[in-house]
Amino acid sequence: MTFRIAPSILSADFSQLGEEVGAVIAAGADLIHFDVMDNHFVPNLTIGPMVCEAVRPHSKRVDGSKIPIDVHLMVKPVDRIVPDFAKAGADIISFHPEASDHIDRTLALIRENGCKAGLVFNPATPLSYLDHVMDKVDLILIMSVNPGFGGQKFIPSALAKLAEAKKRITAEVAKSGREIWLEVDGGVKTENIADIARAGADTFVAGSAIFGQADYLATISAMRGELAKARV
Ligand code: DX5
Ligand code: ZN
């Protein structure tokens, strides 16, 4: 089982975003989570492809190896902006099913643009959206808060939903042998990360829990320590 930690730059210091990205990578980040909000699908406004392009050269380790940029689109409509993010350096692009009129088409579009495709589930959104598209999904993202803001409290019902999503992934892997990541986003902290891992998540977004601490290395190391406990 590979666990990945994805700091959300939503809680970073935007006046020095490049340095912040470098700092969390030096502290052990596996992905950079990039939250895109449009003040329409969600009640907040953040960053777009230009910022993704600016972050891209910073999203690598000191040895030059690339750290994937994990773009979480909270925008409606979705399709128009997908190629722009692919060109700007996104590696994974995820969207909410409610934000696309043609989910199958949007998933295909993301892959055609050379990125991994993810589907995101709000707390009240049913997993049945996966029924006919599992073969087109590379990542399932379970929201454990209502999207729009960092620093919210983890909604406990996300644990059962993660377990249900994990079952679907296990069935798909048995059928196709293809890997699908199970990501969780919202209110993830050192204190609850082990329980979340036990529910089936393998990829953990954490914004305020990492950027809200002075020592990113200590925080990410503590999270890894907890994840090691969940493994046994
Ligand atoms: C919320 C965003 C999250 C957010 C998480 O809409 O999708 O990625 O940054 O922040 P924390 O970890 O502080 O809950
Ligand atoms: Zn997010």
Question: Can you walk me through this structure?
Answer:
The chain has 232 residues and is of the alpha/beta class. It has a single domain, classed as TIM Barrel (Alpha-Beta Barrel). 34% of the residues lie in helices and 17% in strands. It has helices at residues 17-26, 49-55, 82-87, 103-112, 158-176, 193-198, 208-211, 216-231, and strands spanning 4-7, 32-37, 69-74, 92-95, 116-121, 139-143, 181-185, 203-206. It has an eight-stranded parallel β-sheet with strand order 1-8-7-6-5-4-3-2. Helix 2 links the parallel strand 2 (32-37) and strand 3 (69-74). The longest helix is centred in the C-terminal third of the chain and has 19 residues, at 158-176. The radius of gyration is 16 Å and the shape is globular. It starts with a strand and ends with a helix. The mean pLDDT is 98. The site of D-xylitol-5-phosphate has 21 residues, from strand 2, strand 8 and helix 7.
